[in-house]
Design goal:
By secondary structure, the protein is an alpha+beta fold. It is built from one helix and five strands, in the order E-E-H-E-E-E.
Length: 87
């Protein structure tokens, strides 16, 4: 009795359109170790995390011109206890 050859089809990898402007950004709280995820640019995500920490949790209406001091060094940016890695 002969064995039949099984034909295995390889699927093509599906490529989705890139949303390079808005990728998932992880903001790390350095005092508690909590990770927060935002679909924003890194500095805007940092401002949203800070605004949530001071009690302004409405992330849909964040004033990105809010007077905050963001310290940048190399590929990281920090604001208060929050840190983000910029790529």
């Amino acid at each position: 009795m002969k064995r039949k050859k099984i034909k295995i089809s390889r699927r093509k990898k599906i490529e989705y359109p890139s949303t390079a402007k808005y990728k998932v950004t992880m903001v790390f709280n350095m005092t508690t170790g909590k990770e927060l995820y935002y679909m924003l640019q890194p500095k805007k995500a940092l401002i949203c995390a800070y605004m949530a920490s001071i009690g302004k949790n409405n992330t849909w209406e964040v004033d990105f011109n809010y007077p905050v001091h963001i310290s940048t060094s190399g590929k990281t940016a920090t604001l208060d206890d929050y840190c983000v890695i910029m790529k």
